[in-house]
Amino acid sequence: MTIVESIKTAIRQLAASGDNASLEAEILLAHALGTTRTHLRTWPQRKIAADIIPRFNDFIQRRATGEPIAYITGTREFWSLELQVTPDVLIPRAETELLVECALARLPTGRTARVADLGTGSGALALAIASERPQCHVVATEVSAAALAVAQANARRLRIANIEFRLGAWYAPLGDARFDLIVSNPPYIAQHDPHLQQGDLRFEPRDALTAGADEFGALKILIGEASAHLLPGAWLLVEHGYDQGAAVAELLRAQCARDIFAVKDLSGRARVCGGRY
Ligand code: GLN
């Protein structure tokens, strides 16, 4: 079978499960061959080695049953860093890059600062911030040992050395250290939200998506305990659900946070919010 024939067959198998069948077929064939999509497009008539076909078919079958592309290829790009992801971590989302932008805007280049990323998962936020601000010291905490191992492996592979990883929930592993800026993308989906039964979310770690009975459970801990871990005037920045902006701003106000701001995603919904303590 040639490259173009294999892609066409795969598109037919994937067509039922989404609108991105042709892109996904190309990504999975490139992954099976250990090459790039550009290579596939340059050599559409090349024959595929027989031993690659079962591998490619396996990827297509998995995708057809809903497994996220990122777990099949084991990678996802975030802030132009190629991150390794496993089913132990949330797949980094494009909207979380907003949180990176907000953090960088508050971390002047060339100055040292202490930054914490709580619930680091794959390490996405910590790695993006640490790579952009090499003079900053980042502490990343994570309650899941398996997730923390993924984040640490990402830091090693990307040679990002200014991150210290600590196992534990939220602020627990920080002791009495204080920071110039704290970021977090916590679980904030309501426990019974039907989205948890749809798409990629079905395959992601439940604890990374939902905080349990109270959808604000993790956000309340982050916002409520921040003052003990921030230097005077330092920032807490969090991501939240598309309909949670007003409630999260209220939680910040209740802690007497100042300069509270909200940032909207591309679809116009507030997704990141923060304030100074
Ligand atoms: N901080 C990681 C991310 O933004 C993980 C977040 C999580 O697991 N809730 O992708």
What does this structure look like?
By secondary structure, the protein is an alpha/beta fold. It contains eleven helices and nine strands. It has helices spanning 3-14, 21-33, 37-42, 52-64, 69-73, 97-105, 124-132, 145-157, 206-209, 217-224, 245-254, and strands at 75-78, 81-84, 114-118, 137-142, 163-167, 179-184, 230-239, 258-264, 270-276. The strands form two sheets. The chain has a seven-stranded mixed beta sheet, sandwiched between helices. Strands 1-2 form a two-stranded antiparallel ribbon. Strand 3 (114-118), helix 7 (124-132) and strand 4 (137-142) form a beta-alpha-beta unit. Helix 1 (3-14) crosses helix 2 (21-33) and helix 2 (21-33) packs antiparallel against helix 4. The chain is elongated and about 65 Å long. It starts with a helix and ends with a strand. Bound molecules: glutamine (GLN). Glutamine is lined by residues 90, 92, 96, 119-122, 124-125, 185-187, 208.
Question: Summary?
Answer:
With 277 residues, the protein is α/β, with parallel strands linked by helices. The protein has 11 helices and 9 strands.
Distinctive features:
single chain; 277 residues; alpha/beta; seven-stranded mixed sheet; two-stranded antiparallel sheet; binds glutamine
